[in-house]
Write a structure and sequence with these properties.
It is a single chain. The chain is an alpha/beta fold. Strands 13, 14, 16, 17, 19, 20, 22, 23, 25, 26, 28, 30, 33 and 36 form a 14-stranded parallel sheet that branches. Strands 5-4-1-6-10-7-11 form a 7-stranded mixed sheet. The longest helix is centred in the middle third of the chain and has 21 residues. It is elongated. The termini are far apart. The chain binds uridine-diphosphate-N-acetylglucosamine and calcium ion.
Length: 487
């Protein structure tokens, strides 16, 4: 296959049926926008030029296109409506950038057909070249063709044109072969055709589809190739189709990973974005969602009921019932159940973040453990340190965030409040319930509460005849020796 001279992506339409403040082509499936999917597919053909036509919500669409494909040319469609006009505007923008008008194959794609793959397009391009066509359209057969343009063929099967639903007669409406809005054109035939397309139709639009009949009439070859897998060419018009195509994309993504050696226990409840990377022998348990640029290394077990966005999971790690984003989980580390990993969490090899623990901007070194009920934010923890249950780094004084630095081989006692900024030196210990407001030198024991004081008979005098007082009196009778004095 030779690369096309240009790919034109149509993304100027309003997408009214989405009933959304967000432009249709910026809705997402598989973690990528609809137009993002189309641009990625288009790039796969290695075209000399890639043009995106915009109009509706143009600033938002242009900003997004610049982000996902900075080299793409943006063409603004003027207020003349229709797919034909959109392509004219694209050709004008293209010609403004090139020394001479482009020649050869020009591929046109709808910006709302997210499942189309480069292979299908390459085959279309190959047939176009092999047969010396002026236009090769991609079509498919559907049971419910209402709303689509129909492919009209003559008795010997030759394509004579495309008729839009609103312009079709009853006989044409019965045709089940529909136009997918995906084409390869010869640039010269495209220019010539568009030059004579009018707006004399039910919608008063410049129809790109009219180019086929015009090319045919001027003696050129026109063809339509039928895509066997209809869903590949299906467009999104409403949120119901968005969900259907999203589920299908996910099914295909999971299928690919399973064939590559990933165990997915329950594909029905597992969602994996297209850019996620999974190694062989990863196990994904039910109810797991992997988003963005999440990467999971070999032997790791993720789930059940875990949602990770842009998280790196190391080899052999286990991540159970966890919600995490922009975090790194080291090899053979364990996380969860019920852990909340916020951005900037970096857990070292064989480290542990346990039940009901929240972390943020926290580097937790190899072999260090935060096993239970803690918040660790804006902190650096060395290696082989243990953070006792229910300990908290108090990183926020109401105005500014401060950092906590804890060394290696430290034992932080249970229920320790660390009022940052505080540094705890290597090998230090802290007593349970300490409130650390000053640094702890290496090897020291930091204790802050006063000694325990027992006030005898306090319950009887404060709450006489209460259940507690009766229980205390009963306990005294059972153990007459007990006088409550310390030994
Ligand atoms: C078009 C085809 C129809 C085909 C259908 C497939 C025409 C005249 N008709 O229908 O044969 O079956 O797609 O979905 O081409 N767009 C623009 N500018 C416009 C109008 C549309 O850029 O002025 C873009 C849209 O953003 C979208 C694509 O073109 O990405 C298709 O537009 P849409 O309105 O969905 O399709 P129809 O014109 O109804
Ligand atoms: Ca339309």
């Amino acid at each position: 296959m030779t690369s096309p001279a240009a790919v034109i992506v149509l993304a100027a339409g309003a997408g009214t049926r989405m009933k959304s403040a967000t432009p249709k082509v910026l809705h997402r499936i598989g973690g990528r926008t609809l137009v993002g999917h189309v641009l990625a597919t288009a790039r796969g053909l290695a075209p000399d030029h890639l043009v995106t036509v915009v109009r509706h919500e143009r600033d938002a669409v242009v900003a997004h296109v610049a982000e996902v494909d900075p080299a793409a040319i943006v063409a603004d469609q003027d207020d003349i409506p229709g797919t034909g006009r959109a392509v004219q505007c694209a050709l004008e923008a293209l010609d403004a950038r090139t020394p001479a008008p482009v020649e050869g194959a020009v591929v046109v794609l709808a910006g709302d057909v997210p499942l189309l793959d480069t292979g299908t397009l390459a085959a279309l391009l190959e047939a176009h070249e092999a047969d010396g066509n002026a236009v090769t359209a991609l079509s498919t057969e559907v049971d419910e063709p209402t709303g689509y343009g129909r492919i009209v063929r003559d008795a010997d099967g030759t394509v004579t044109g495309i008729v839009e639903e609103k312009d079709a007669n009853p006989e044409q409406r019965a045709i089940r072969e529909i136009n997918a809005s995906i084409y390869v054109f010869d640039a010269a035939a495209l220019r010539e055709g568009l030059g004579s397309v009018g707006r004399d139709n039910a919608q008063g639009e410049v129809y790109l589809t009219d180019v086929l009949a015009l090319a045919r009439r001027s003696g050129r070859r026109v063809a339509a190739i039928v895509a066997e897998d209809s869903i590949l060419v299906e467009g999104v018009n409403d949120r119901s189709q968005l969900a259907t195509l999203g589920a299908e994309l996910n099914r295909r993504t999971l299928q690919r990973w399973m064939l590559d050696g990933v165990t997915i226990v329950d594909p029905a409840t597992t969602w994996v974005d297209v850019e996620v990377d999974l190694a062989p022998d990863v196990t994904i348990l039910p109810g797991t969602q992997l988003h963005g640029a999440t990467v999971v290394a070999s032997g790791a077990v993720v789930g059940p009921d875990t949602t990770l966005t842009d998280v790196e999971v190391g080899e052999g790690a286990t991540v159970t019932r966890t919600h995490g984003s922009l975090a790194v989980i080291g090899p053979h580390a364990t996380v969860g159940p019920f852990s909340y990993l916020r951005p900037g969490t970096v857990l070292g090899e064989k480290g542990k973040i346990g039940a009901y623990v929240e972390t943020k901007n926290a580097e937790i070194g190899a072999g260090s453990k935060v096993p239970h009920l803690s918040y660790i934010g804006d902190a650096t923890i060395g290696e082989h340190t243990n953070i006792g249950a229910a300990s908290v780094t108090l990183n926020y004084d109401g105005t500014t965030k401060h950092r906590t630095v804890i060394g290696s081989y430290v034992k932080i006692g249970g229920d320790t409040m660390i009022v940052a900024p505080v540094t705890v030196g290597d090998g230090a210990y802290t007593g349970a319930g300490a409130v650390l407001r000053r640094d702890v030198p290496p090897g020291a024991l930091a204790v802050t509460p006063g000694n325990q004081r027992n006030i005898e008979g306090w319950v009887e005098s404060r709450f006489p005849d209460s259940s507690a007082a009766r229980a205390a009196a009963a306990a005294d009778q059972h153990d007459p020796e007990s006088d409550g004095d310390p030994a």
